[in-house]
Every structure is written in structure tokens, then in C-alpha cells.
Write a structure and sequence with these properties.
- The strands form 10 sheets. Strands 2, 3, 4, 5, 8, 16 and 17 form a 7-stranded mixed sheet that branches.
- The chain starts with 5 loop residues before the first helix and ends with a strand.
- Helix 13 crosses helix 15, helix 13 packs across helix 16 and helix 13 packs across helix 19.
- It contains 23 helices and 31 strands.
- 33% of the residues lie in helices and 26% in strands.
- Strand 19 and strand 20 form a beta hairpin.
Length: 703
């Protein structure tokens, strides 16, 4: 055997080194793959070798307080196509049939049907059973069905803004569906199974199943029956008053639970108007909670309650109505201006909706104490309801409030509230004096009916005493039994209430001519209230429009049906039946003659002007409760000076320079001084209307 040469030894060494380097490189690469990329590659391998399918959790239902289903989930079919299989048949024929049955654009269907880059494509989601059955009969190759969960609302257009809705994937977008989405949706489960190289499940291979956790049911405080009463009455109001819209809410004053709540117009929750986002957005807004309005006369109940509680007035206090009040040179009219109510006690003032009396009460309370009551009644702050967009309303900062601002606030002007704030505060007025946090949700429960979370009654404050509350129940009952609120009178039941009318404003804060909101809030039984109902009518089509005529009859309907449903016993005795009178024909009469004819018949009136009567409501010959209000539409408007932006000059005679300066400053007028001593004359006579900021020259004399 020849002895290896030096050259061959060198080649052998080089080969060994090369092998060692390659081995070291492979070892390093293997180490990198195992330790650095191992977890990532294992995940990729698992994805390639297994199919991970999500198991949807069943979305919880939404129930009323008695367990009636208001929203639930049900199976729905989704059409799935497999382009590779579909391509083996007559594509044109299949596409045409699919487009026709599914009411889809044929080109859209064709584009998806010929997209062979995907194994499966969802063509149409959550179709009806009838459409699914029609497709099954055709037995089209490459067309399959998968089962999804669809949200279903048994009552269609019902509690619309409160319940809200979900998107096609079952995610809550509005209302309770959105606000309680995390509780309703639950946690999805999983099925993991082994697959072959083509992604098909391997028969008899192992499968791992993680069960879903179904969502909780949300139990509302709303009562399906009372909700139906409210919605029916509001629909009638919309039609009869030819109104733009209506808001309505019913509450249990002892618990703060909302028994019914609706805004009209609304829509079918099973057929969301997705094609018009402006309409959907507007009609999805729960205006009871999110919209503010100037409450008008219904706010006088808050003023009276504050006055009785503070001692600024009592049940024996009297007031003198001139038909208007002059405060810091501003004229604030009573409802009967240019006439007056004259001398009256607090009960008569409430029955007459006399603004003068309530202004006097508010000024007697004083700004600081009045604001304490405002905040204790919940105005200017969110209510705390478990619902989206809880608004706080608008209350002027106390430090900027002048005497004239306070006067307007006492009669529901220069303040903005939500309907929810208003019904909550009136509930406090009549329930013994306690402001409660309003509730729309009673509890969360699992699918077996076990309570998971309960929402308790929360007391926010006690703005007035039980004594003042008892007096207010009597006061507001007299408004219905003997006053302007007779439109809400129910024979055999004790009912209390108060009406309001307020203007509407544009985005710049300017009053919109001819546009107004009419409201009435009523409660019963008056001695122990079980239900409070507020209805606001948006732009009723009436020349002379007041909440006593446009809203009170519909509140009456809800109260009557609810009291019957709640088992409240009706007094059918003869003593409980009201005296009835026939409305006289006063068409063409002067306002003076019409007043005489109505007084003789035992009826009240409200007119929208002076001159002669053009029309009346109720009509002549109609039988009404004695003491009811007849609305008069006159052929001419009041002939009066436009007082908008004008101030009335006060009498400065006898005042010192300092006193005159302070007096005019209160009236936003400027003092021009002539002489010294005590005021003896002024260049602008007292009682004259002048523009804000005008200068008044006053002559002073020391003699």
C-alpha cells in the first residue's frame, strides 16, 4: 500500500475542516430553529395541520320586568358558495338563479362565484327561512348553508330607542344592546380538529372542544303592557295633533323605575333603515335622556314645592296677578295677558297656571336658596341612569343670575332640562320628597334565571320634606279637579298634574316662530302615587296650542289604562262623577262676550289674541267637564308693543344719586346726573319702554 503523500494529507485535512464547518453551521441553524423559531414554527405547523373554528356564544335576551322577551337570538341561514365546485357546473345558470332568489346584482354574484382563489365565500348573510327553502329546492352545486345567530325583536317597533339594535355580527350598536353588550354577548368557544394537506377534517382524528359562555339576560324595569299603553296614546297624539314627534315616559315614583319610555317617530327593530343614516341617527336618539327643552309651566311645580318647603309661601299665602310682572324693567306675561287673575291663593294660582304668582314665590325664596333646590332636584347634572348619553341639561351659573333671570326660571324659562330630569323631579315632589336615581335595568340573570347582578334603588337627595310633598300632592290634584288640568280628569280616580308649553330654538339660540313643545305631566292616585306620566308633543298643528289640550288627554289615557292594569280600585259612586256642561257657540263673538258666555257655562278659556272668535275647541254643543278650558282662536293678534329687548323705566323720584344709580344698574340702564341731592324729575317718564343700555337723565335737588 503506497504511503500517503503530503499533498493527499493536505486535501484530507481540508475536507475534514469543510465537513466540520458544515456540521457546525447545520448545528447552529438547527439550534436557531429549535430555540429561536421553535414556538413560531410550531404555531404555523399547528395552523396548517388543524382547523380552529369559533363556536359563537348565545347572546342574552332582553326581558321586561315580568320576563316577557323583548329581544332574543335565533338561528338564521347564511349562503356559502365554493367556486371550485361551482365551476364544474353551468356557472351562468347558477349565477342567474342565485341572483334572482337572493335579489342580488348578477354581476356581484358572478364576481364572487368565479373567484377560485378562495375555497369558500359568504354570499348572503342571515336570509329568511323562505328564501333558504327556495334555494334548497334548486339543489345548486357548490351552494351550501351555514347557521348564524340573528337578533330578533318580537314586538318590532317597540321600546325602540331603549332596546336599540345590533349589527349583522351581533355587536350592540344602540341602546341597551350597546350599553350592556359585554354582558349580553358572552364568551365564544372553540373547536380544534386535525386536517389533511387540503384543509379537510381527518375522520376519527382528535378534536378539542371549548364550550362557549352564553351571555346574560338583561331584565328591564319597563312593563310591556304599560309600554303598549304609552305607545298607543302617543301614536294617537301624533295623528290627531298632526305633530312632528312625541316623547313619553312613565315612572314608578317610589322606586325611580322607568315603566315605559318611547320617542316617535320610530322604526321596526327587525328592519333597520340602514339606507338613510340621517333618519336612522335621528330616530335612534333617545330624546327622553339626551334632548333638552325649556319646560315652561310644568316647572312651576318645582317652584311651588321649593316655596312651600322653604317657608317662602304656605297654603294660605295669597297673590295679586296684574296679568304680568315687571322685573328689572322686563315684562313677563301671565297666561291670560292682557287680562289678569286678580287676588288668588296658592291653590287658585296653580289651577290658573298664573305665572305672576310663581314669579313672586321664586323671588321670595331668593337666588341662592332657589339654586340649592334646583341642584337638590337634580337639574344641571346627569341623572345617573345606566344608559348612554345621560345629559345634565342647562342651568345658568348662579353668579350671573339677575333678578329678571330668576323670575323667568321660576316659570320654566331660561333653563333647559331633559324629560327624564323633569319626570324624576316631579316624582320627588309627590313621593315624599326623595329624588331617586332613575332606573331602566332591574337585573342581569343567567340562562337559568339566576340573578347575577341586581340594580338597587338609589336615593340621590331629599329636596323637600314629606310635609311639603303632601301639600304639593293636594295642590297638583286641585289643578286637575278644579283647574286648567281638567283634560286629565278621570272619574273615580284621584289624579294630579300640570301642563306646560314652551318655544323651540334654532342652533343659534333664536326662537323659532310658530314652533313649540306642549307637555303635560300627571300622576295617580294623587294621595299615594303609583305612576307618573309625562308626554311632550313636538310641534302640534294648532293655532292656539297648550299642553292642557294637546298632551293632557293622552296622559289621561295612559294613566287610566295603567291604573286599571295595576289593580287600583276605581270609585264608581255618584259623588265621584264630574258635573258635565255643553260648550256654548261663541263663534264670531268679541272676547268680552265670549268670556261672559263661557263664565255662565262654568268654563274657562285661553285665547291666542283679541278681536272676535274665529274658531273654538271643543266645538259648540260638545259635553265637557264643568271647569274645562275652551281654546279660542281669534281673527286678530294682540295689538301690543313689541317688548322684545325693551326695558321699562322705573320711577326714581325721591331717590338719592347712589340709590338711583343702583336702581338703574339693576335695569341695565345708565344714569346721567343733573344736580345734587334727591331726584325730583327724569327726562324719560316711568313706565316708558326703552332699549337696554339707554341713558336716563335725572334731575336732583337739595331743596
Amino acid at each position: 500500500m503506497p504511503k500517503p503523500t503530503h499533498k493527499s494529507k493536505k486535501r484530507l485535512l481540508l475536507l475534514m475542516i469543510t465537513v466540520l464547518v458544515m456540521f457546525a453551521g447545520l448545528s447552529a441553524k438547527m439550534a436557531y430553529v429549535v430555540f429561536a423559531q421553535g414556538e413560531e414554527l410550531q404555531e404555523k405547523a399547528l395552523i396548517q395541520q388543524t382547523k380552529d373554528a369559533t363556536v359563537a356564544a348565545e347572546r342574552g335576551s332582553i326581558l321586561d320586568r315580568n320576563g316577557n322577551v323583548l329581544a332574543k337570538s335565533a338561528n338564521a341561514y347564511t349562503v356559502v358558495i365554493r367556486p371550485e365546485i361551482l365551476a364544474q357546473g353551468n356557472v351562468d345558470s347558477i349565477v342567474s338563479k342565485l341572483a334572482q332568489v337572493l335579489d342580488m346584482d348578477e354581476e356581484t354574484v358572478r364576481k364572487k362565484a368565479t373567484n377560485t382563489s378562495k375555497k369558500e365565500i359568504w354570499l348572503a348573510r342571515q336570509i329568511s327561512d323562505s328564501v333558504a327553502n327556495e334555494l334548497r329546492k334548486l339543489s345548486l352545486p357548490g351552494v351550501y348553508f351555514t347557521v348564524e345567530i340573528k337578533r330578533y325583536y318580537p314586538n318590532s317597533a317597540f321600546l325602540t330607542q331603549t332596546i336599540g339594535f345590533t349589527n349583522v355580527d351581533g355587536v350592540g350598536l344602540e341602546g341597551i344592546e350597546a350599553h350592556f353588550d359585554e354582558y349580553l354577548s358572552g364568551q365564544p368557544g372553540r373547536i380544534v380538529s386535525e386536517t389533511d394537506v387540503d384543509g379537510n377534517t381527518i375522520p376519527l382524528a382528535e378534536q378539542y372542544y371549548i364550550a362557549p359562555e352564553n351571555g346574560y339576560d338583561v331584565v328591564l324595569t319597563a312593563d310591556e303592557v304599560i309600554q303598549s299603553f304609552l305607545e298607543k296614546s302617543m301614536q294617537e297624539a301624533m295623528e290627531n295633533e298632526n305633530a312632528k314627534g312625541a316623547w313619553g315616559i312613565a315612572m314608578d315614583p317610589d322606586t325611580g323605575e322607568i315603566l315605559a319610555m318611547e320617542c316617535l317617530p320610530d322604526y321596526d327593530l327587525n328592519d333597520i333603515p340602514n339606507d338613510d343614516m340621517a333618519i336612522l341617527t335621528a330616530q335612534s336618539r333617545n330624546s327622553i335622556i339626551t334632548s333638552v327643552f325649556e319646560p315652561g309651566s310644568i316647572f312651576e311645580a318645582i317652584t311651588a314645592a321649593s316655596a312651600l318647603d322653604s317657608g317662602a309661601a304656605d297654603t294660605g299665602t295669597t297673590f295679586d296677578c296684574k296679568g304680568y310682572e315687571m322685573v328689572q324693567g322686563q315684562q313677563i306675561k301671565c297666561s291670560v295677558y292682557p287680562e289678569s287673575h286678580g287676588q288668588q291663593d296658592i291653590f287658585e294660582a296653580a289651577q290658573n297656571m298664573c305665572s305672576s304668582a310663581f314669579i313672586e314665590m321664586g323671588i321670595s325664596i331668593g337666588t341662592q336658596e332657589f339654586f340649592d333646590y334646583l341642584y337638590d332636584f337634580g337639574f344641571g347634572q346627569p341623572t345617573g341612569i345606566t344608559f348612554p348619553a345621560d345629559q345634565d341639561g342647562s342651568v345658568m351659573a348662579e353668579k350671573y343670575v339677575r333678578k329678571c333671570d330668576l323670575a323667568r326660571m321660576t316659570v320654566g324659562q331660561s333653563i333647559a332640562v331633559t324629560p327624564l330630569q323633569m319626570v324624576s323631579s316631579i316624582s320627588a315632589v309627590v313621593n315624599g320628597g326623595f329624588l331617586l336615581e332613575p332606573k331602566i335595568v332591574r337585573a342581569l340573570q343567567d340562562s337559568d334565571g339566576n340573578i347575577v347582578k341586581e340594580y338597587e334603588t338609589v336615593t340621590v337627595s331629599q329636596p323637600i320634606s314629606d310635609t311639603a310633598s303632601a301639600a304639593m300632592r293636594q295642590l297638583l290634584e286641585s289643578v286637575v279637579s278644579d283647574g286648567m288640568g281638567k283634560g286629565c280628569y278621570i272619574p273615580g280616580y284621584r289624579v294630579g298634574g300640570i301642563a306646560g308649553t314652551s318655544p323651540k330654538y334654532d342652533d343659534d339660540g333664536n326662537e323659532i316662530a310658530g314652533s313649540h313643545l306642549d307637555s303635560f305631566i300627571g300622576f295617580a292616585p294623587a294621595d299615594d302615587p303609583k305612576i307618573v306620566v309625562l308626554i311632550v308633543i313636538d310641534e302640534p298643528d294648532r293655532p292656539a296650542s297648550f299642553g292642557i289640550a294637546t298632551a293632557a288627554p293622552y296622559v289621561k289615557s295612559v294613566l287610566y289604562e295603567s291604573l286599571q292594569y295595576l289593580g287600583e280600585v276605581q270609585d264608581d259612586s255618584e259623588a265621584s262623577q264630574p258635573a258635565m256642561v255643553d260648550v256654548p257657540d261663541i263663534s264670531g263673538m268679541s272676547i268680552e262676550d265670549a268670556k261672559t258666555a263661557l263664565d255662565t257655562a262654568g268654563l274657562r278659556y285661553i285665547a291666542d289674541g283679541t278681536g272676535s272668535v274665529e274658531s273654538q275647541e271643543p266645538a259648540a254643543g260638545e259635553a265637557v267637564i264643568k271647569g274645562s278650558v275652551v281654546l279660542l282662536s281669534m281673527d286678530t293678534e294682540h295689538e301690543e308693543t313689541d317688548m322684545a329687548g325693551m326695558l321699562i323705566v322705573p320711577d326714581l323720584t325721591g331717590l338719592s344719586i347712589m340709590q338711583a344709580s343702583v336702581e338703574l344698574a339693576d335695569y341695565d340702564l345708565k344714569l346721567v346726573i343733573n344736580g345734587r341731592g334727591t331726584a325730583v324729575s327724569q327726562d324719560t317718564q316711568a313706565g316708558t319702554a326703552v332699549e337696554e343700555g339707554s341713558s336716563i337723565t335725572v334731575t336732583f335737588s337739595s331743596s
